[in-house]
């Protein structure tokens, strides 16, 4: 895998490709970061297996689905579980996180009725966001290392880091009253390679 040629295809934004970009940055792995506008998407869409982005080409073979891509890269570069139980716990929290992200995206981007959108955003702010933050704070407290699983940086730390740091969910996630999430955020940000990437990454609106 160290010598594999990687090509990541996604729109010119962070969105569902940014976790993969951060993993690759943390691993120090060179890859081709293919970004395109919405207008250019029809040109790249035929390259993807299911007509969706992101997609990851590994030595010319193209794979899709952001969670699958992230898990693959995490395994390949040492950011997944050390054993099956650690992997189980990481993926449990990933799916817990996705239970928050998916309906949030639906409200923001797939709800056309203004009243329904307003009600959905209110529910996220008052119910969904505090719920996920309380769960995450509790997981960190129970683990006791500053990380979500084990005593090192893993995929779930990167996912939450991006989620509270400019990802589309960040507008709802006020972590000022969650000291353990703040500590975890600083641990991820203190990674030298991630810090370098964050300092130089392209500024996009989403």
From TrEMBL:
Free-text function comment from the UniProt entry: S-crystallins are structural components of squids and octopi eye lens. Contains relatively little if any GST activity.
Organism phylogeny: Eukaryota, Metazoa, Spiralia, Lophotrochozoa, Mollusca
Family: Belongs to the GST superfamily.
Name the record gives this protein: Glutathione S-transferase 4
The organism's place on the tree of life at top rank: Eukaryota
Domain GST N-terminal: 4-81
Stored InterPro entries: Glutathione-S-Trfase_C-like, Glutathione-S-Trfase_C_sf, Glutathione_S-Trfase, Glutathione_S-Trfase_N, GST_C, GST_superfamily, Thioredoxin-like_sf
Domain (GST C-terminal) ranges: 83-206
UniProt source species: Biomphalaria pfeifferi
A single GO BP: glutathione metabolic process
Keywords associated with the record: Eye lens protein
CDD domains: GST_C_Sigma_like (cd03192), GST_N_Sigma_like (cd03039)
GO molecular function, one term: glutathione transferase activity
